[in-house]
Design a protein that fits this description.
The complex is a heterodimer.
Chain A lengths: L1 H5 L3 H36 L1 H12 E6 L6 E2 L5 E13 L7 H8 L7 H13 L6 E4 L4 H10 L6 E10 L7 H4 L1 E4 L2 H9 L11 E5 H5 L1 H5 L3 E7 L5 E8 L7 E3 L3 H10 L5 E6 L6 E7 L5 H4 L4 H9 L8 H4 L9 H10 L9 E3 L2 E2 L8 E2 L7 E3 L1 H6 L3 H11 L1 H10 L21 H8 L5 H8 L9 H12 L3 E2 L5 E3 L14 E2 L4 H14 L7 H4 L7 E7 L22 E8 L6 E7 L5 H18 L19
Parallel strand pairs in A: 2-10
Antiparallel strand pairs in A: 1-8, 2-3, 3-4, 3-5, 6-7, 8-9, 10-18, 11-12, 11-22, 13-16, 14-15, 17-19, 20-21, 21-22
Helix pairs in contact in A: 11-24, 15-17, 15-18, 15-22, 17-20
Chain B lengths: L1 H9 L4 H21 L4 H22 L3 H25 L1 E3 L2 E7 L2 E3 L1 H19 L6 H20 L3 H17 L4 H21 L2 H11 L10 H13 L10 H4 L11 H34 L3 H25 L17 H25 L1
Antiparallel strand pairs in B: 1-2, 2-3
The chains are: A alpha+beta, B mainly alpha.
């Protein structure tokens, strides 16, 4: 064996070696072919796929946020504006210990407990941004201090941004509303509306009021910049750019000065006022008191302030003008009277003898007039001037609920006015059908009696009542009320020239009711005090909305009743009565007397609107005992 | 005089190999300039690496063969001592104990073993050439297995496998019985599940990522994905020198080292790749010629192992960049930035040239 090996043929050995070498060469060649085909696959077959991936890597589309449109009043006074300022923002994903970071930051810039709370609330509500502001409106010194310490705070940055500001604060809160940071719910809604792309860089969205209802016009169109970025996301160069289009500047129909006068006229009363130009539907003043400071909401409100606003018994967040629903009380009487005339249930001359109460046939239940002992003989004109309840109890009973509803419906009661602001309430025009559905009860004749003087189940919003008054003032032709006069680039927000509502009632009937309403503000009328010395024909009607029911045989004694349970005071008005240019509804909550509180507010507004007269401080209202509480 | 000097200087250098090496050397410098984002410092660094490696090549090429044979045992023993030292006192870096700090420099002894193992095995086979029996293959395998195990423990799977390959080439070329090769292959396949369970997590991750790199595009799969994007988006003609977006916007990791092939592919495309592969094939061809014509058993085994190991490095690097092999941390031979690998490779080529030229001299 050993011998055999020693004698191994050298040539044979080299032959076997070379054979193995050739085998390895084949092996090498095969692997090189594998490699080559792989490269062919990557660089030829899938080249476009990988080119796309490479482009996705390097090209970053950066949204350019458009400037939000301004909002100004009819005279160009700016009500919502943008100003540039600095915020200190934290990217929670890049910060390990948020608490420690905020503590360290508070040594450099002022961070109050409410800033921390607001920041925490933002974090829980929204997951759409990378960074969230811990402080806004930094001053120059704070910016400079942070800049020098910046290295200590990875994930914290100063951003220069445009802020929304509402210079008139409470005065325009319920009208303009506010913008706020886009939260998860907003983001989802934008997504379903297919608008998410246009909000890629946006932090804010209109939450309520005009800001919400005209979001589309105010926001503008987002621009985009294609930027070549490196792996760290730093821009290397701009490849292309689409410029953003700023939001449109909205011009409102309202006059901020008139708004101010209206708001101030309320004094300490809560309530609402809507004034409309009856000839075109422009809303001239839109007040809901109390208001709130909308600026608090822009960068997120802290929980404490929010709770204080939300839990306040004054409900400052409730838009009373748009959403507050109250019984119309006696302000319904002019409309009821028109229904009576037009349905031929009454003639102007028909006269009743008022004993101070009304009985339904076969019933001993007394529906009391506001004036014990009654008003004596009362025809239609007088029934309005002195607001005779007994007259309207009878009228309502004679008409029946169906006729009442059909006429009131024509004046827009029981449905939304179509105002260009979201969230309007529709009030309530009660009917037997409604009562069955709502309470599963039959409609009693007594229900109709209450509806006759605007009590019972009837509910209206100040907006609705103002619109109905405007329709009446304009002789039955109503123009849909609107808050925005002009949106650049689209046609003026004018209502249908033919009118959106045309109530078919004989002109002489309307003229009679207007005359009666004018007499309301003259001596002998329920608003004589507010009408004295007007200098123009001033038409109106007082009303009282009951807050609590008065039992049979009880007497309403104002001073004995908790302030919050006192009646609400209504007043509807238009002027000049012969050629109305302004119509309105005024509601003063828990003010009791329509004539003594609500009517003077209307007077001040109209004085300014028609005469340019700044209101003098009127002597404090001292209603005489005889003066109507209605 | 000058002619004589020139001849004295170049007599042991192999002209075809030198030309190919010079082309790749220039390619390396040009590519590192692009991959480093225009850093002359980096280019100069690589130039110094090349000069040092070239001096080593020249020295080895001019060394008579018996020096080489005699150095096999001391080098192997030195390597083993260093490997053991690493296992005992090595510096831990990135979770692996691979480096040894000696005075001024930090060295990676596993690099040395890339040469030492095949050298030792070739020396062993040469000694027992006349009486080769199965037990000799077993001993040779042991020469391979001990350093392999030590390097695997560091852990450095990539280097361990490459050394395993270079050793296996020696065994194969030394005439290892086919039945044993088949047996080894079968047992390797059979033991795969056990190897899998014995692997480190990061090694398993790398293999998983190879199968589906999109599983973790920002983590473990990032290297592979970005490499494939660079190669694929290069297309047929490439994006042009200094114009690779993956490279210059730094999406590609390890641009001057392990992933330099992606830089090349992105900027020069498939056409450039074919040219590059042709140059590598030329070097391999030359290596095979030298191997086939080597005069002794030792030189045949050594030359074959050097040539095949060179190919293995090339294939593994290109394979991992183009996504057909896991990312194992192997530089592209002769092009990637790095002194150690450059030195090892040039030493190998020096040996090849020495084997070739000294054989010729002996014959003449």
């Amino acid at each position: 064996m050993r011998q055999h090996k020693e004698l191994k043929n050298h040539q044979r050995e080299i032959y076997f070696f070379r054979l193995r070498l050739i085998l390895t060469m084949v092996f090498v060649l095969v692997l090189l072919l594998v490699l080559l085909s792989r490269l062919f696959y990557l660089q030829v077959v899938r080249q476009s796929y990988f080119t796309t991936l490479a482009d996705n890597n390097r090209i970053s589309v950066v949204p350019i946020v458009p400037n939000r449109g301004l909002i100004q009043d009819r005279n160009g006074v700016v009500l919502a504006q943008n100003y540039s300022g600095y915020t200190l923002e934290i990217a929670p994903s890049k910060v390990a210990d948020l608490e420690a970071t905020i503590n360290a930051l508070s040594e450099i810039v002022t961070i109050q407990p409410k800033d921390r709370k607001r920041f925490k609330k933002l974090l829980t509500e929204s997951h759409t941004s990378d960074t969230y502001p811990i402080r806004s409106r930094l001053n120059e010194a704070e910016v400079a201090r942070f800049a020098t310490q910046r290295f200590r705070f990875p994930g914290v940055e100063i951003k220069a941004r445009l802020f929304r500001e509402y210079p008139y604060r409470e005065r325009t809160s319920h009208l303009i509303g506010y913008v706020g940071r886009i939260n998860d719910k907003d983001a989802e809604e934008l997504h379903t509306k297919d608008l998410a792309d246009n909000y890629l860089g946006s932090d804010y969205i209109g939450k309520i009021g005009i800001e919400q209802s005209y979001e589309r016009d105010l926001h503008g169109t987002t621009g985009f910049e294609q930027v070549e970025v490196d792996v760290a996301g730093r821009g290397v160069r701009v490849l292309s750019r689409t410029t953003p289009q700023s939001g449109k500047t909205l011009t409102l129909t309202m006059d901020i000065k008139l708004q101010e006068i209206a708001e101030k006229a309320f004094g300490n009363f809560r309530g609402a006022l809507v004034a409309i130009d009856p000839t075109n539907g422009e809303v001239l003043a839109f007040v809901s008191k109390p208001g709130y400071d909308p600026n608090l909401f822009v960068d997120g409100i802290d929980t404490e302030t929010w709770d204080a606003l939300n839990n306040s018994p004054d409900v400052p967040l409730n838009n009373r003008a748009l959403r507050g629903q109250y019984p119309p009380g006696s302000t319904i009487k002019p409309f009821m009277a028109l229904a009576g005339l037009d349905s031929s249930k009454r003639t102007p001359a028909y006269t009743i003898s008022d004993p101070g109460y009304f009985n339904l046939p076969g019933s001993r239940h007394k529906y009391r007039d506001w004036k014990a002992g009654g008003h004596g003989s009362v025809d239609m004109f007088k029934s309005i001037v002195i607001s005779c309840d007994t007259y309207f109890y009878g009228l309502a009973t004679d008409m029946g609920i169906d006729i009442i509803d059909s006429y009131l419906g024509q004046f827009g009661f029981g449905k939304k006015t179509g105002l260009d602001m979201e969230g309007e309430s529709s009030g309530l025009l009660p009917s037997p059908d409604w009562k069955r559905r709502r309470y599963n009860q039959v409609w009693y004749p007594g229900d109709t009696v209450s509806v006759g003087i605007g009590q019972g189940y009837s509910l209206v919003t100040p907006m609705q009542l103002a619109y109905a008054t405007a329709i009446l003032a304009n002789n039955g032709t109503g123009y849909r009320p609107h808050l925005v006069k002009k949106v650049p680039g689209s046609e003026d927000n004018q209502s249908n020239r033919q009118g959106d509502i045309n109530v078919q009632i004989k002109p002489e009937h309307i003229a009679l009711i207007k005359r009666a309403m004018t007499a309301v503000t003259l001596p002998g009328g329920t608003a004589a005090y507010a009408g004295s010395g007007a200098g123009y024909p001033f038409a109106g009607k007082t009303g009282t909305a009951q807050v609590i029911g008065i039992k049979q045989g009880e007497k309403y004694v104002e001073k004995d009743i908790n302030e919050r349970h006192r009646d609400h005071a209504w007043f509807i008005a238009f002027a000049p009565a012969d050629d109305p240019r302004i119509a309105m509804a005024v509601l003063a909550e828990n003010a009791g007397h329509g004539g003594s509180v609500a009517a003077p507010i209307a007077r001040k507004v109209i004085d300014y609107y028609l005469l340019g007269k700044e209101p003098l401080p009127l002597p404090a209202a001292k209603p005489k005992a005889e003066v109507a509480i209605d | 005089m000058i002619n004589r000097l020139q001849r004295r200087f170049t007599v042991h250098l192999d002209l075809p190999l030198m030309i190919a090496l010079c082309v790749l050397m220039l390619t390396s410098l040009v590519l590192i300039y692009s991959a480093s984002g225009g850093s002359f410092e980096r280019v100069m660094g690589q130039f110094v690496n090349i000069v040092v490696a070239f001096v080593a090549l020249w020295l080895v090429a001019n060394m008579p063969l018996h020096y080489l044979i005699r150095s096999a045992v001391p080098i192997y023993i030195l390597g083993m001592v260093l490997l053991l030292s690493v296992a005992l006192f090595g510096e831990i870096n990135n979770g692996a104990r691979r480096w040894l700090h000696i005075g001024v420099a930090t060295i990676q002894p596993s690099e040395l073993m890339k040469i030492a193992v095949p050298l030792m095995m070739a020396w062993y086979f040469e000694r027992h050439e006349a009486t080769l029996a199965l037990k000799n293959y077993f001993v040779a395998a042991l020469i391979l297995a001990v350093p392999f195990a030590l390097i695997l423990r560091q852990p450095d799977l990539g280097t361990a496998l490459l050394i395993c390959a270079s050793g296996f080439y020696v065994l194969f070329l030394a005439g290892l019985n086919w039945r044993i090769i088949a047996g080894l292959a079968i047992s390797a396949l059979a033991s795969a599940p056990f190897v899998w369970s014995a692997m480190h997590d990061y090694q398993r991750q790398r293999i998983k990522m190879l199968l589906d790199p999109t599983q973790d595009p920002l983590g473990k799969g990032y290297h592979t994905i970005q490499g494939m994007i660079a190669v694929g988006s290069g297309g047929v003609l490439g994006k042009g020198y200094l114009s690779g977006t993956q490279t210059h916007l730094e999406f590609l990791p390890e641009r001057t080292t392990d992933f330099i092939f992606a830089v090349y592919s992105e900027e020069f495309g498939l056409l450039g790749n074919i040219i590059l592969l042709a140059i590598y094939m030329f070097i391999l061809w030359r290596g095979f010629i030298i191997t086939a014509n080597a005069s002794t058993y030792f030189t045949r085994l050594m030359a074959g192992s050097i040539t095949l190991t060179f190919f293995t490095y090339t294939f593994v690097n290109m394979g991992m960049v183009s996504g057909i092999l896991p990312v194992v941390g192997v530089p592209l031979p002769l092009i990637s930035y790095g002194g150690t690998s450059m030195l090892t490779l040039y030493l190998g080529f020096g040996m090849l040239m020495s084997i070739h030229s000294h054989k010729t001299l002996v014959q003449s």
